[in-house]
Specification:
About 35% of the residues lie in helices and about 30% in strands. By secondary structure, it is of the alpha+beta class. The protein has three domains: about 50-55 and about 265-410, Beta Barrel (Elongation Factor Tu (Ef-tu), domain 3); about 65-95 and about 220-235 and about 245-265, OB fold (Dihydrolipoamide Acetyltransferase, E2P) (Beta Barrel); about 100-215, Helix Hairpins. The protein has a six-stranded antiparallel β-barrel. Helix 2 packs antiparallel against helix 3 (about 160-215).
Length: about 425
């Protein structure tokens, strides 16, 4: 009996020792090996530098229909084509309320009629004044001649009478000189009065003609054929936020001069307006080929080329460049505002060493990778020659070298170094 008890105790001791040893072994192996680090090899081959972006379709020579100058702060829409309605050249697209302009025109025409009568009055007054002045001059000339005849008889006249004749002649000559001056001055005065009234007449004519032109311009006609794309109503909105949408303009809406009401896209020339990230700006150049797809036209790919690359815009933390791509062969189904995805092929590099972009790290102005060595993955400085979204062309590595796809420093932490939250949960 005792022998059996001792045997059972011995077996239990062996099992306990084996379990304890196995636990130690598993813990040691787990602590030493850790999780396997993802890695890749440095490859040599062809790398295509491309840029992907998203934009929207726009007519290359789109005709914008804007609110013309109205002479007022605002006006109302009285007639507007339906969105998508086809129009031909000289078809009326939109009309605006002309009530105020017609009132201004009637006032201008009344001022014009008054100015015409004022010119007639000024001319009549000038003519009558000239006749009076000429009569006064003739009278003065006649008085001088009569006085001169009296002076000629002074030889047979008493001295007193002769003196009186001389004095009368001098007085007549003075009146003649004064009449001549009055004629010149009054003639210039009446001429200036007529000129002022004629200037007012010209001003009234210009005002009336301007109001007629304004009324004619408030009926906007199409200069090209196509369909009408009514613009959103942004009047009365002093602030905007990203993703904010507006209703399209409708009859009765209040608009302001210079505000876009509609557009007629050019169905033969299409462009795509896209925003390119700052890092990809150096890969773009005018004339590069572009492969483009339209979300609303699945299964179709269109070819194009870079037309223009604008300057930098956006906030300091979201710098981008405006880029316009022209399409070589557009489709009739295209419409403005359709979302487009494009692939711009910048250049192709043959026989270069490259690694995935996620295997390249930057710190303190240096670029480096984690290369496999007998001691594990160690930092190794490289020179970045070029890069795309997924590939980086580097110098300073050999073909076949193994580099880490993630930071080894974050993968090799001891199991006991857990964050405070995990330690708190285990307690």
């Amino acid at each position: 009996m005792k022998f059996r008890i001792l045997l059972v105790v011995a077996v239990l001791a062996v099992i306990t020792a084996a379990a304890f040893g196995t636990r130690k072994l598993v813990k040691a192996v787990t602590t030493q090996t850790g999780p396997e680090l993802p890695s890749t090899k440095v490859r040599r081959g062809r790398v295509t530098i491309s840029v992907t972006a998203r934009g929207e379709l726009q007519g290359g020579n789109t005709e914008m229909i804007i609110v013309p100058p109205t002479g007022a702060d605002s006006t109302a829409i009285t007639s507007l084509r339906e969105p998508g309605e086809m129009v031909e050249v000289d078809d009326t697209v939109v009309e605006f309320d002309t009530t105020l302009q017609e009132y201004n025109l009637r006032e201008a025409e009344a001022d014009l009629a008054e100015a015409e009568q004022m010119v007639i009055q000024a001319q009549a007054t000038s003519q009558s004044g000239d006749e009076e002045n000429h009569y006064a001059l003739l009278q003065a000339q006649s008085d001088v001649k009569l006085a001169d005849l009296d002076v000629r008889s002074n030889k047979v006249q008493p001295a007193l009478k002769a003196r009186q004749n001389d004095i009368a002649l001098e007085a007549a000559r003075g009146r003649l000189h004064q009449a001549e001056q009055n004629l010149a001055n009054k003639s210039a005065n009446t001429t200036a009065g007529v000129a002022i009234q004629q200037a007012n007449l010209g001003k009234a004519k210009v005002t009336a003609e301007m109001n007629r032109k304004i009324i004619e311009g408030m009926s906007v006609k199409a200069k090209t054929s196509g369909y009408v794309n009514v613009q959103p109503n942004t009047s009365g909105n002093s602030w905007y936020y990203s993703g904010m949408t507006f209703q399209t303009l409708q009859l009765g809406d209040t608009v302001y001069s210079g505000m876009a009401v509609a557009q007629i896209p050019d169905m033969k020339n299409w462009e795509v307006s896209a925003r390119i990230g700052e890092l990809d700006r150096g890969h773009l150049a005018v004339g590069q080929k572009v492969s483009l797809t339209v979300v609303a036209l699945p299964g179709k790919t269109f070819a194009g080329r870079v037309k223009t690359v604008g300057g930098t815009t956006g906030s300091p933390w979201d710098r981008h460049f405006d880029c316009r791509i022209t399409l070589d062969q557009p489709a009739p189904e295209m419409r403005p505002g359709m979302t487009s995805n494009m692939l711009i092929t910048a250049e192709s590099l043959d026989g270069v060493l490259w690694i995935p972009s996620q295997a390249l790290y930057e710190s303190d102005g240096k670029t480096f990778v984690y290369i496999r060595t007998p001691k594990g993955f160690m930092p190794h400085d490289v020179t970045l020659l070029n890069r795309s979204e997924s590939q980086a062309v580097v110098k300073g590595l050999n073909e076949g070298d193994v580099v880490a796809m993630s930071n080894p420093d974050q993968q090799t932490k001891p199991a006991g170094q857990q964050n405070g939250a995990m330690q708190a949960l285990q307690k």
